[in-house]
């Protein structure tokens, strides 16, 4: 299968079940809202080393407190992992940001009565930082906690919602040069960023150091994806690269449900192909034995199964 | 399918009529004949509801649940919507004492004035009064320790004395003025008075929030902390507006003087006085 001269390999991306949630962070100005969003989603590229994957989804169309704000998505392997990591992130990265407040983002992608949605607490645990001077305020049916801080009050919702999401949707762009491959990857990221409900957790939305499971070193769980490293192509048995393949970039996608990840992969691949110049698009998998979700590239793009 | 029970008061009761059975959730499954036969305490005797009420039942395609519409001057009819759990009660006129007391859910709209003890001990739902409310709105009955614990009372006009006395949660918002002792001994919750308030604001309050405009004299047991913009203000303001009360001049970016008190009761309560620009 080819799109605009780009070969689409007959393979699939293998993704995993994760827990995901959306937080809305606000601040007195757009500048500080963005600072807050970037702070709380920082160092969250992969669950392997960070325990969580996160991304700034975009400016929030309507924040609860009417101030500028950003929606952020978070994904982790387990409910406890997500809740525990977020407690630390909110406490250390968000509460410390000037004028910030934190709200549970809505999950319109998931039916309200879905059994996939569950609650977890952040505000009710973080409140003890107030050292006895914290106060709650119930507005409507939602309880908020107000913690006295040096610039006023930090406001945070008591409970947040999480859902069963999908993590690890991916595709790789193989190109003749770094510049061409980067241009295609940037086009793909830009296209995917228009969607809601999906996160691109790596810097700038893409990753250059894709990994393989395991290593020749016993102490290492994952190592560089040698099959796609052009500088060692001739030394690696079974390299996936051909003569003239000089750069590979990967886009990893987490989403609040399977359909969103599939849609994001399709949109991204089409944008990369439309950009032109790259030679091949493929995807990463583990033979289909590890991940519950398989995204076949040809199926996503409307070709043969 | 929404069931609308539309009843009109055919005669003004000469004596107080206790009408705690007039609730949309209780009347939802009844026929008109069954409603007319409901026994109500009239003075010291029982009377059938049909002696005072006549009307019709309609069904609408749009919506769900039950809506009870009461037309007339119900100022002498007590306990309308008491303990109500769901549905909508619209009173096209005044309502008597204890309207919406112990209410748990649903919505009551009173297009006239409301009597004393409006929403006393309520735990949920919303009461909206387009006129004035009497004394003890959202309060605790005498001898009880906790008044309203949840829900909202939205008063477009003025409120009487002891508004929110011993309240333990929920919201009371008054667009007009209120008389003395708002938030007396309140334990939690929020009282907002957009107009003027009588004396002894928050007397004996343990926790909770009272919001007023500046210029009120507080008790000496309230201590000033700072001038700031509470992050929750915009949330509260939006919620009040959603309930149909527009607060002119109370903008999203208001500044407030924050006072803690009452010091004799632990000082965990707060009074926020809106700072004029």
Helix content range of the residues of chain A, please?
Answer: 10-25%
Instruction: Give the number of helices of chain B.
Output: 3
What is the N-to-C order of secondary-structure elements of chain A (H for helix, E for strand)?
Answer: EEEHHEEHEEHEEEEHEEEEHEEH
CATH architecture of the largest domain in chain A: 2-Layer Sandwich
Beta-strand level of the residues of chain A, as a percent range? 25-35%
Number of helices of chain A: 7
Q: How many structural domains can be distinguished in the coordinates of chain A?
A: 2
Largest sheet of chain B: 13 strands, mixed
Order of helices and strands of chain B: EEHHEEEEEEEEEEEEEHEE
Overall strand count of chain A:
17
Rg from Cα of chain B: 19 Å
What is the arithmetic mean of pLDDT of chain A? 95
Shape of chain B: elongated
Describe the structure.
Chain A is α+β, with helices and mostly antiparallel strands. In chain A, 24% of the residues lie in helices and 34% in strands. Chain A is built from 7 helices and 17 strands. In chain A, the strands form 2 sheets. Chain A has a 15-stranded mixed sheet that branches. A two-stranded antiparallel sheet of chain A has the order 13-14. The mean pLDDT of chain A is 95. In chain B, a hairpin with a 2-residue loop joins strand 3 and strand 4 (45-48). Chain B has helices spanning 24-27, 32-36, 233-242; strands spanning 2-9, 17-18, 39-42, 45-48, 53-60, 65-71, 77-78, 88-92, 107-110, 126-129, 152-155, 168-174, 188-193, 209-213, 223-228, 255-261, 269-275. Chain B is elongated. In chain B, 7% of the residues lie in helices and 32% in strands. Chain B is built from 3 helices and 17 strands. Chain B is mainly beta and 277 residues long. Chain A binds chain B through residues 64-67, 101, 135, 137-140, 144, 146, 152-155, and chain B through 150, 169-171, 189-190, 207, 209, 228-232, 234-236, 238-239, 252, 268, 270.
């Amino acid at each position: 299968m080819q799109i605009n001269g780009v070969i689409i390999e007959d393979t699939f991306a293998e993704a995993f079940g994760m827990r995901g949630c959306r937080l809305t962070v606000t601040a007195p100005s757009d500048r500080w809202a963005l600072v807050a969003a970037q702070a709380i989603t920082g160092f969250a590229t992969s669950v392997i080393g960070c325990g969580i994957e996160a991304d700034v989804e975009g400016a929030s169309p309507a924040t609860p407190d009417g101030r500028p704000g950003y929606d952020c998505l978070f994904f982790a392997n387990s409910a406890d992992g997500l809740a525990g990591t977020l407690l630390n992130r909110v406490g250390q990265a968000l509460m410390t940001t000037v004028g910030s407040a934190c709200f549970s983002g809505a999950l319109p992608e998931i039916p309200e009565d879905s059994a996939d949605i569950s609650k977890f607490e952040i505000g009710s645990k973080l409140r003890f930082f107030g050292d006895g001077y914290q106060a709650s305020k119930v507005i409507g049916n939602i309880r908020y906690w107000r913690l006295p801080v040096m610039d006023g009050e930090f406001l945070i919702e008591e409970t947040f919602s999480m859902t069963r999401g999908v993590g690890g949707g991916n595709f790789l762009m193989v190109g003749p040069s770094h510049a061409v491959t980067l241009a295609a990857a940037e086009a793909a990221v830009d296209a995917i960023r228009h969607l809601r409900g999906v996160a691109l957790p790596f810097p700038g939305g893409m990753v250059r150091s894709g990994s393989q499971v395991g290593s020749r070193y016993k102490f290492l769980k994952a190592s560089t994806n040698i099959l796609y490293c052009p500088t060692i192509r001739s030394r690696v048995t079974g390299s996936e690269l051909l003569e003239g393949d000089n750069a590979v970039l990967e886009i990893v996608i987490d989403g609040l449900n399977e359909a969103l990840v599939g849609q994001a992969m399709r949109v991204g691949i089409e944008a990369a192909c439309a950009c032109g110049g790259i030679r091949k698009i493929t995807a990463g998998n583990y033979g289909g034995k590890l991940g519950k979700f398989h995204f076949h590239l040809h199926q996503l793009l409307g070709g043969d199964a | 399918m929404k069931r609308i029970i539309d009843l009109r008061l055919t005669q003004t009761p000469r004596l107080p009529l206790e009408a705690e059975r007039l609730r949309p959730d209780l009347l939802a499954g009844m026929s008109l004949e069954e409603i007319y036969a409901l026994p109500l305490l009239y003075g010291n005797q029982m009377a059938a509801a049909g002696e005072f009420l006549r009307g019709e039942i309609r069904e609408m395609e749009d919506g769900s649940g039950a809506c009870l519409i009461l037309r007339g001057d119900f100022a002498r009819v007590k306990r309308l919507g008491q303990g109500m759990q769901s549905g909508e009660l619209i009173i096209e006129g005044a309502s008597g004492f204890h309207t919406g007391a112990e209410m748990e859910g649903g919505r009551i709209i009173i297009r006239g004035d409301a009597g004393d003890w409006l929403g006393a001990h309520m735990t949920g739902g919303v009461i909206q009064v387009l006129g004035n409310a009497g004394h003890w709105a959202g309060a605790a009955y005498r001898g009880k320790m906790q008044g309203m614990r949840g829900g909202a009372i939205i008063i477009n006009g003025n409120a009487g004395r002891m508004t929110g006395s011993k309240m333990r949660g929920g919201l009371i918002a008054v667009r007009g003025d209120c008389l003395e002792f708002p938030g007396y001994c309140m334990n939690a919750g929020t009282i907002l008075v957009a107009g003027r308030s009588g004396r002894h604001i928050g007397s004996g309050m343990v926790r909770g929030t009272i919001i007023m405009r500046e210029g009120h004299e507080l008790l000496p047991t309230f201590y000033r902390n700072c001038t700031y913009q509470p992050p929750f203000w915009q949330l509260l303001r939006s919620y009040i507006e959603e309930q149909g009360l527009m607060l002119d001049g109370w903008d999203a970016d208001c500044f407030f003087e924050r006072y803690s008190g009452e010091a004799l009761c632990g000082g965990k309560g707060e009074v926020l006085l809106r700072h004029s620009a």
